[in-house]
Amino acid sequence: MSVRPPIAMLAELTHRCPLSCPYCSNPLELARIDAELDTDTWSRVFREAAELGVLQLHLSGGEPASRRDLTELVRAAREAGLYTNLITSGIGLTERRLRELDEAGLDHIQLSLQGTDAAMADRIGGYKGGYDRKMQVAGWIGEIGFPLTLNAVLHRQNLHQLPRALEMAVEMGARRIEVATVQFHGWALMNRDALMPTREQAREADRIVTEARQGLKGTLVIDYVPADYHSDYPKRCMGGWGTTGLNVAPDGLVLPCHAAQTIPHLTFDNVRDRPLAEIWYEGAAFNAYRGTEWMAEPCRSCERKLKDFGGCRCQAMAVVGDAAATDPVCVKSPHHGALQVQAEAFAKGSEDALTWRAAPKRAAEPAE
Ligand code: SF4
Ligand code: SF4
């Protein structure tokens, strides 16, 4: 197949974060603080990304505001010609810092929402006072005039807050909201008992989003990631493996998606050792599941294979133990029935059985 350049790059600047959400998509083994790429290396990677054809740069983490050089990094990305989007919980951003980011050319902010009130948001984020600080940051974002997307991460414990999250997006002047039902990777995978929505909640969320898309047409764009364990077909993960986007981890590893390190037989190149373009076109991890050649049945002969590319490789690995298997969310997967039964069982689990995300270590500290 002919490989096109990526459109978007997710730069995970650090795995540090003041919050500790139990659904964090960062890997269980977080990149050590001492291993993070420095300012010059990130700046070089941004230039390489632009030369490769990347248009949009998503600055993420962890919490990207934990990087003291964030403004410098935004400036470097803009100088490279990239559209810059900051994905943040808001914690660590002051009005002064936001104004500096504005001056450096930051184009857009995506603010995460752990809950629509302090009790929910602070419990889920594991950070007391976080909600109030986030609301303050949202006010500054509005005053400065950054285009804003609200990113509401929903699960069994807060799905009832979806209508309020939509209202808040409108009140904050957001142009877009991402209603993202938790995807079970990273830390979320060990919290399925506490976070799995019920089937009824999943259907109710579908209904609310459909109605809101009508009611808020022209006011708010709603991107929706449904509860996929309760779906019949998988999502087109990452727009297709090695097709439209790439992730660079804090330590420079280049990943086809944020959870790709959970596939144990893959090896990943590092931007410290190899140019980004070479990694994209020739890297073993990118070519492992690119296109359709790797597929087995039922995907191989399925009429939807160019629509969803067989779903998520990391989910196939996590649930079935085979990264080349059909995503078990799919009705055509032999594991679909078992997954549905599992989902029902998880949805009856204890809401108190939460494991919050840990903090990354320094080199001197022993790994757990
Ligand atoms: S999901 Fe939560 S803990 Fe993870 S990076 Fe985002 S704000 Fe931090
Ligand atoms: S069989 Fe494979 S390609 Fe077909 S719908 Fe299911 S996951 Fe998609």
Helical coverage, percent range: 25-40%
Query: Total helix count?
Result: 14
* Structure classification: alpha/beta
Average of the residue pLDDT scores: 95
Task: Give me the strand/helix succession.
Answer: EHEHEHEHHEHEHHHEEEHHHHH
Strand order of the largest sheet: 7-6-5-4-3-2-1-8-9
Radius of gyration: 20 Å
Query: Which small compounds were modeled alongside the protein?
Result: iron/sulfur cluster
Strand content: 5-15%
The multimeric state of the shown protein is: single chain
Report how far apart the termini are. Answer: 42 Å
Largest sheet: 9 strands, mixed
The beta-strand count equals: 9
The poorly predicted ranges are: none
Shape: globular
Account of the 3D structure:
The chain is built from 14 helices and 9 strands. The chain has helices at 39-52, 70-79, 95-104, 118-125, 130-144, 162-171, 186-189, 192-195, 199-215, 276-282, 284-288, 305-308, 313-320, 336-346, and strands at residues 8-12, 56-60, 83-88, 108-113, 148-154, 176-181, 221-225, 245-248, 254-255. Strands 7-6-5-4-3-2-1-8-9 form a 9-stranded mixed beta sheet. α1 packs parallel to α2, α2 packs parallel to α3 and α3 (95-104) crosses α5. The radius of gyration is 20 Å and the shape is globular. The structure holds iron/sulfur cluster (SF4) (2 copies).
